[in-house]
Amino acid sequence: MPNRPNVLLIVIDQFRADLLNGALAKTADLQNLSALAAESCSFSRHYTVVTPCGPSRVSLFTGQYAMNHRAVRNGTPLRHDTPNLAREMRSAGYDPLLFGYTDVTQDPRVLDENDPRLTSYEELLPGFTEVVRQRQESDDGDWREHLRSKGYDVPGGMDLYVPDGDSIDAPARYRAEDSDTAYLTDRFLDHMETQSAGWFATLTYVRPHPPFVAPAPYNTMYASQTIRAPYKSDDNKLHPFVDAAISTRRLSSTVEGFDHVEASPENIDKLRALYLGLAAEVDHHIGRVVSWLKTSGQWENTVLVVTADHGEMLGDFGLWGKGTFHDAAFHVPLLIRAPECPPRRIEAMTESIDVAPTILDLVGQNRPDSMNGVSLRQAIESGEGGKEITFSEHDFGNPVNPTDIQKSLDIDASEACLSVLRTDHHRLVHFGGDLPQIAFDMTVDGESRDISALPQGSDICLDLSRKMLCHRMVNPESTFAKTMVTDGGVKRRTG
Question: Residue 129 is inside which H or E element, if any?
Fold first, then answer.
């Protein structure tokens, strides 16, 4: 393809939208990402369609809702022949370079049972050329070898992330210039110096994903600042799911080496400050990437997309992680900077499944029929577009080893799931099994009060339930939805 654009997709792990625009933004003060947002098309109501990490990345790269790809948990395989962004970009003439990880579990039907790729969910999405191999939960990764080469004593597994001190906000065992974030950026910049124009690269930062441990000075960067306190619910009676989630997903799950740390106000403040410090570290290194694009003369021919796989509750409503129905888990940033497209802010809702179709559209490649997402090119170019509803899912069970929350609720893995439907004003949360629905009026109480039991709540829930049912009906798995085998051969509707 002559004069085809470069494409850089940056995915930040567990990065809340309000770090850039919202309650945490003023404290976080992420100058590089904020400057990039001012030069980009910024989508202020962008939602991932599924959590946690593996499923969210599958949806991001395949453009499919989780109800269709069904790789719904970390460790649930993805069908090997599922079309994805890397494969489609390869068909468009690009070599899809990966710096980091995709967290895609392999299809056991096409591998030998002794294949080591069937021992971890942290595996590679088919289609990518893996330049830097990054794994967090195992010793299989380039960064650990780098640390050893620098003379560090590198412990195995997650012990590498135990703070170097007796406090949860003690610094990491490694210096800032040797962190996983710094190493990934260094390798990206070194490698890309040798690439000819017309490249496609995906750069995936694991931070600010837990364990919350940061190298100095990021571990104490926000220690003296006042950070907004976690949100609380106005309801005295918790929903059974929320009650179970609070009791089974504790603050201690976010830090290594402090299994019995209490959720005191002091510790909550320290962990929230650590999260902001890790986000600031990522912001610094993304600034290096943007600077390189500009100084190397590639800025004007590069499509740059920055987003996150999912968010982080960070103690809001007593919850940590992303295993819930709240916006903080699903609401993530989306910045798209495309040559000749003016910067603007888009208020309409969009979904993570729209990213892959948009990139394909911007390079002139048709999206496969399997993708549920739509291209946002019109919104980028004219400011018009977006969705009236968005839909997200979360499976909180395990068919092999039942989860604590699954056991607490006494439900089967097939029932341990929830779906979220959003409109401009309302949220509906529908659970599998016999758990009651939850509904929110976002214009009045936000997520602090469930309105499902109020006098007007039943009508709102009924209307939203109908919308959710309709949405599922018109968005099934569609690989062959536009294809017919006829007496004249295989026919396919275009458009």
Answer: strand 129-133
What confidence tier does 2 reach under pLDDT thresholds 50, 70, 90? very low
Question: CATH assignment of 6-388?
Answer: 3.40.720.10
Residue with tokens 């090119």: 377
Residue 117 structure tokens: 């790729």
Beta partners for residue 201, in sequence order: 8, 97
Residue 279: its H or E element: helix 265-295
What's the rounded Cα separation, in Å, for the pair 146 and 337?
33
| Residue 336, CB-side half-sphere exposure with 13 Å CA sphere | 27
d(CA 33, CA 31): 6
Alpha helix ranges (H) inside 127-218: 142-149, 180-192
Burial status of residue 130 (CB atoms within 10 A of its CB: 0-12, 13-18, 19 or more): middle
| CA dist., res. 291 & res. 229, Å (int) | 34
Rg over CA atoms, the chain? 22
Q: Given this model, what pLDDT does residue 236 score? A: 59
What is the DSSP code (8-state) at residue 77?
A: P
Contact by Cβ (8 Å): 77, 107:
yes
| Tens digits of residue pLDDT in 173-224 | 999 999 999 999 999 999 999 999 999 999 999 999 999 999 999 999 999 8
Q: Which two tokens stand for residue 14?
A: 């567990």
Domain residue spans in the chain? Answer: 6-388
Q: Strand 483-486 and strand 489-492: pairing?
A: antiparallel
